[in-house]
Amino acid sequence: DDDTTRHDEL
Amino acid sequence: MNVFRLLGDLSHLASILILLHKIQTTRSCRGISFKTQALYVVVFLTRYLDLFLGDWVSLYNTAMKLFFIGSSCYILYLMKLRFRPTHDPAIDTFRVEYLVGPSLILALIFNYKYTLVEILWAFSIYLEAVAIMPQLFMLQRTGEAETITTHYLAALGAYRGLYIPNWIYRYFSDGTVDPIAVIAGLVQTGLYLDFFYVYFTRVLQGQKFELPA
Description:
The complex is a heterodimer of chains A (about 10) and B (about 210).
Chain A: no helix or strand
Chain B: H1 3-26, H2 34-47, H3 59-82, H4 97-109, H5 116-130, H6 133-142, E1 144-145, H7 147-174, H8 179-191, H9 193-201, E2 209-210
Antiparallel strand pairs in B: 1-2
Helix pairs in contact in B: 1-3, 1-7, 2-3, 2-5, 4-5, 5-8, 7-8
Keywords (chain B): Endoplasmic reticulum, ER-Golgi transport, Membrane, Protein transport, Receptor, Transmembrane, Transmembrane helix, Transport
Protein name (chain B): ER lumen protein-retaining receptor
Main location (chain B): endoplasmic reticulum
């Protein structure tokens, strides 16, 4: 589990 | 990336280019809320922190983020220094603390992870949803707007509006939902409904943007 959530939107 | 998302982003890009064009050609920032523009700088800086954390998504993503940060700062420079005398703070009176404070509180309660980056990301989403309010308030106060300014607002409103079908598409195509972005996005789009009504019924019919007295 990564430390940040992946936000791929702008 | 789907067609709605792409059109939404292009609409966002277009809105900024329209605003820059308006300021440069009329050599004036009359009718533009400095407070709204300053809030956008805060929104972009707090949301795009991941640029500096090596969290690479794509060249498109990075280029757009850099453009939004750079152009929003440039607009502040134009308003505050270059064309300062054309900005009238007396009509730009919305209290931004009413927007920043609640956005911060919401971000502390509703976020995806209790880390600084995630709280700031959520904050930027909530703040963006309401950042247009000083601008709309100013429009309401003056009761009219230059046509080019209304095109700017229409493109900006279309941007978040187009993100809605994008989220519906993503729900069916990859089963993902981003509730924070979706709820804030619906609120943000909703704020434009009155504006869009006047835009469609007057400006696009060739009339001036004027609100009933």
